[in-house]
Amino acid sequence: MAISRTARRLEGIGSTIFAEMSALAVRTGSVNLGQGFPDADGPPAVIEAAVEAMRSGRNQYPPGRGTPDLLDAVIAHQQRHYGISLDRSQVVATTGATEAIAGALLGLVDPGDEVVMLEPYYDSYVAVLQMAGGVRRPVTLRAPSFRLDIDALRNAVTSKTKLILLNTPHNPTGTVLTLAELEAVAAVAIEHDLIVVTDEVYEHLVFDGREHIPLATLPGMFDRTLTISSAGKSFSFTGWKVGWASGPASLVAAVEGAKNWLSYSSGAPLQPAVAVALNHHDDFPLALTKELQDKRDRLCDGLSTLDMDVFVPQGTYFVTTDVSRYGYPDGRAFCEALPARAGVVAIPSQVFYDDQAEGGQLVRWAFCKEVGVIDEGLRRLRSGL
Ligand SMILES: *Cc1c(COP(=O)(O)O)cnc(C)c1O
């Protein structure tokens, strides 16, 4: 009999739902509306910049902190978009936002510390927090509006709370926190002297003229906020895994202290290319947002002709629906049956919830796909469901 030798810190977090469902899509020839990666690549000029960087010899270990051109581009981006002033001690480049999240949790959370976070959770938060020995305290965003419940946030804070982990625009619900909601988060953080780690990878992908407001721009918040972002979502280079964390030097140093022993550094030719993207291609995320908004409407309209409630998102790549009327025990059963029934793959949102009463029947659909793919997915759903 095979003996499992896996460490307890990985118990229950051995694989990701995205890998599982993308493999299922390939195996069954299904339309993949599951994993959130775009069908189309980012700006060709940025790809050329990466090729040029490789040809000009930028192929050895970059500095652990990140290449100076990328650090400067992040600094300029934060100044230009949000009026946030940073110096090079206040930015660290990471292997995607994923490593910035890992670095933040491993670098800031001691065993037993509590982390207040929005439920449904992005799955890496749960996994890395478990590895760090921390304890999650959920604040649940509830359908149909998925707004932040300020009282729930207040009640989740205890004497053991080390930090609040925020995500806006929020994956998977598409909630974009309003200024009033962010002010409430800031008030709680200041009252309890908490750090806030805020995952803003969808910062530019916000619809209907809404605005993304970085928490770090609120009064009194810069000094206690670590902001995380990535080129993956803004520039449609999810496979490049170039991300960054920014904020006060002490918080950035904590991330760097951990990431030095994870990847140390990565993406030598990709970092300068992302610098080009940040410095010269503000138009790309703008155009992408317009496109995504149309695709959101297309997918939402199509899904709403089926027997499910559709919760229209304010940002991100994703729309959530309630599939309870299809009569499956839960969303996972629905999603597992979907490839055979309709030739489509989606993600059961319940894997992002502890509270199965809230998340058990919710399913996440990605619209960061070519129009033809969305239409084919909808056509299959209409005939198969
Ligand atoms: C995609 C995503 C990430 C991961 O970003 P990478 O740069 O690909 O590592 C982190 N947080 C959220 C909410 C995401 O959707």
Q: Your description of this structure?
A:
The protein has 385 residues and is of the alpha/beta class. Helix content is 42%, strand content 15%. The protein is built from 14 helices and 13 strands. The chain has helices spanning 17-28, 44-55, 68-82, 96-108, 123-132, 150-156, 179-191, 231-234, 249-259, 270-280, 283-304, 331-342, 356-359, 371-384; strands at residues 31-32, 91-95, 114-119, 135-140, 161-167, 195-199, 225-230, 242-246, 309-311, 318-322, 344-345, 347-348, 362-366. The strands form three sheets. The chain has a seven-stranded mixed beta sheet with strand order 2-8-7-6-5-3-4, with helices on both faces. A four-stranded antiparallel beta sheet has the order 9-10-13-12. Helix 7 links the parallel strand 5 and strand 6 (195-199). The termini are far apart. The mean pLDDT is 96. The site of pyridoxal-5'-phosphate has 14 residues, from helix 4 and helix 8.
Order of helices and strands: HEHHEHEHEHEHEEHEHHHEEHEEHEH
Described by its quaternary structure, the protein is single chain
What does the overall shape look like?
A: globular
- How is the main sheet built? 7 strands, mixed
Give me the count of strands: 13
pLDDT average, as an integer? 96
What is the first-to-last residue Cα distance?
41 Å
Tell me the helix content: 40-55%
What binds here, in terms of ligands, is: pyridoxal-5'-phosphate
Number of helical regions: 14
Q: Widest sheet: strand order?
A: 2-8-7-6-5-3-4
